[in-house]
Amino acid sequence: MDNLNTGDEKRLPENPIQAAQPDPVENLFQQALRAKNELASSPAARVAKAPSRIKPTTKVKGWFHTHPDVLIGPIDVFNPKEEGGFSDDPVFILPALAAELRAESSQFENAIREVNGYLAVTRAGALYLVLIPLPDPATGRYHPAVEQKIDALEAARAGWKRLEWNKDERQYDEYTAKEDVANPKWPEDVSDITILTRAFGERNVIKRRDDPLLVKFRGEA
């Protein structure tokens, strides 16, 4: 009978790698946090916030402050009276086309106005390009209400102003803020080109005689 305990018994070599134990499964929140950390550590370009639009307008509402150095113009805008279903938002029109249309009819002469623009901001932070018509070419004078508005816009370069239309007096009641209100924060770039681009963009510009607004105004639509 063979001796089973000879001392020469061969043994299987020990495996230095123990049987792999499965890693604990990450739950949903562990996976989310790990992905978040990996994303944060990788370089990525930040999305810059688009500058807010500057609204072109002929009316000033509420408390406003005007930029101390900005006066844009003269520029031409198409701004017919409210009847006829047209928006009261002025539309930029190219100068050569404006001159051509004014020569076409008195209808266009009244609808296309030459204006200057003041950059204004409200207490809520909304930016406006306040458009003021140039003096009457025949008299060289402003309408009294327009002159009053210009005075207020000029005074608002140094403080907050407010205008309320008085129907009985047919002029503005003007108010000046007496409490200490912080000066507004202005855009860094207030060049004429930048302001006009932010106010009118590409859509609110009339470039051709067959622009839909002009066609509608002629009654050809």
Mean pLDDT: 83
Q: What characteristic shape results from the CA principal axes?
A: extended
Q: Secondary-structure element sequence? A: HEEEEHHEEHEEHEH
List the quaternary state of the chains: single chain
- Bin the strand percentage: 15-25%
Largest sheet: 7 strands, mixed
Distance between the termini: 118 Å
- Our Rg estimate from Cα atoms comes to 35 Å
| Count of helical stretches | 6
Classify the helix fraction into a percent range: 25-40%
Low-pLDDT runs of 5+ residues are none
State the total count of DSSP E strands: 9
The structural class is alpha+beta
Number of domains: 1
List keywords for this structure.
single chain; 221 residues; alpha+beta; 7-stranded mixed beta sheet; two-stranded antiparallel sheet; 6 helices
Fold and architecture overview:
This protein has one domain (55-218). The protein has helices spanning 28-41, 95-104, 106-111, 144-155, 192-200, 212-218, and strands spanning 55-57, 64-66, 72-78, 91-93, 112-122, 127-133, 161-166, 171-176, 205-206. The protein has six helices and nine strands, in the order αββββααββαββαβα. Strands 1, 2, 3, 4, 5, 6 and 9 form a seven-stranded mixed sheet that branches. A two-stranded antiparallel ribbon has the order 7-8.
